[in-house]
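lol forgot to send this yesterday, sorry. struct tokens for the thing we talked abt
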């Protein structure tokens, strides 16, 4: 089983970017924790991060055919990334939307996700553990089917 772990704009700045909201962990720290949990679950993960919607769309289109699911933190693209939404829908893969912070307790524009309605679920506000919970959920979902 293989899952794509996709991070959108500004997630490359984790550890430097407003630690009160996003925590002190870097993207590498997150990836190490996710990789460890993936090994425990006996699943493969592939990481990708970009600040550019088109690059994320290209990656999804190229990588989805050899994958079983997606965990995505689309960052700000969550709220307006229509081509990202279309790319996710076109894969027909199960995916979980993850956000480190509780987007529903922040600015109004962050309350709306254009990808939530096509996702298997949304995990917000629990930091890096949201990624591992999403991974566990997808692994169980696919093993049960």
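and heres what i got for the seq, position by position
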């Amino acid at each position: 089983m293989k899952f794509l772990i996709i991070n959108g704009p500004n997630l490359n700045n984790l550890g430097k970017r407003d630690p009160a909201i996003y925590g002190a962990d870097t993207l590498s720290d997150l990836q190490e924790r996710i990789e460890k949990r993936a090994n425990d679950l006996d699943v493969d993960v592939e990481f990708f991060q970009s600040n550019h919607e088109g690059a994320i769309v290209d990656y999804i289109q190229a990588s989805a055919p050899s994958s079983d699911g997606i965990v995505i933190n689309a960052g700000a693209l969550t709220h307006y990334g229509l081509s990202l939404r279309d790319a996710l829908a076109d894969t027909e893969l199960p995916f979980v939307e993850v956000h480190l912070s509780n987007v529903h307790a922040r600015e109004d524009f962050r309350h709306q996700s254009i990808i939530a309605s096509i996702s298997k679920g949304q995990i917000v506000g629990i930091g890096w553990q949201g990624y591992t919970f999403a991974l566990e959920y997808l692994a169980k979902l696919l093993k049960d089917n």
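DSSP finds six helices and five strands in the chain. anyway ping me if u want another try
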